[in-house]
Amino acid sequence: IGAALGDGPLTGRHAIVTSGPTHEPIDPVRYIANRSSGAQGAAIAAALRDLGARVTFVTGPAAVPPPEGVAVTRVETAREMAEAVAAAHPADVAVFAAAVADWRVENAAAEKMKKGTGGLPVLAFAENPDILADVAKMSEGRPALVVGFAAETEDVVAHARAKLDRKGCDWIVANDVSPETGIMGGAENAVHLVTATGVEDWPRMAKGEVARRLASRIAAELGTG
Ligand code: CTP
Ligand code: CA
């Protein structure tokens, strides 16, 4: 009821949430994608909204719909996502739940590629901007709390720690996306919250529950929870 009346612990706060996969074109009809459903990002946006935050939700082409009651910006590529995030500042907190393509096809074709004309296609890749790192390293107007995700298939916490340091963010929500966990694209998540001061291992739970727990931790960190 409190959230419906707009007086939750995050009332007056602005949150940016990225979510979903990105699509990187190969030609006008083909693209490179990944298995992110966007479910965890959507749940986080909804949980922050429920605590009263104004949420800017920047989403790639996700399988799950965006939550109600948030400002949605739909993008396709990593570079479009970076631009949309840059346009959304200032914010108190930014949560980067998107599975951003690390590389784009530098030699994407302007017309549909055809078989049998000059052999097999050869794709050349360029690295995409690191949206999380760029926000975490903003010299002016940086959100007070910058939260990244780390999808790993091995040495989950060690890789997450390295990512926290390399990217300069405040927290990393690390998860094991090995195929045998069934996490990627599933309804549940098992995460480790890695901060400068330590690691919390959260039990496997529904993505909505992970989101609510994260949102209340964010409210506490911003001094409003
Ligand atoms: N991220 C981002 N922009 C990118 C790549 C990643 O904002 N171009 C964000 C993701 O949304 C996530 C975090 O960075 O919050 C970590 O993403 P991840 O893919 O695990 O890390 P990378 O630095 O890309 O390293 P790698 O994929 O090689 O493990
Ligand atoms: Ca990556």
From TrEMBL:
Pathway: Cofactor biosynthesis; coenzyme A biosynthesis; CoA from (R)-pantothenate: step 2/5; Cofactor biosynthesis; coenzyme A biosynthesis; CoA from (R)-pantothenate: step 3/5. The chain holds residues 175 to 399 of 399 of the full protein. GO terms for biological process: coenzyme A biosynthetic process; pantothenate catabolic process. GO terms for cellular component: phosphopantothenoylcysteine decarboxylase complex. Binds 1 FMN per subunit. This is Coenzyme A biosynthesis bifunctional protein CoaBC. Catalyzes two steps in the biosynthesis of coenzyme A. In the first step cysteine is conjugated to 4'-phosphopantothenate to form 4-phosphopantothenoylcysteine, in the latter compound is decarboxylated to form 4'-phosphopantotheine. Catalyzes two sequential steps in the biosynthesis of coenzyme A. In the first step cysteine is conjugated to 4'-phosphopantothenate to form 4-phosphopantothenoylcysteine. In the second step the latter compound is decarboxylated to form 4'-phosphopantotheine. In the C-terminal section; belongs to the PPC synthetase family.
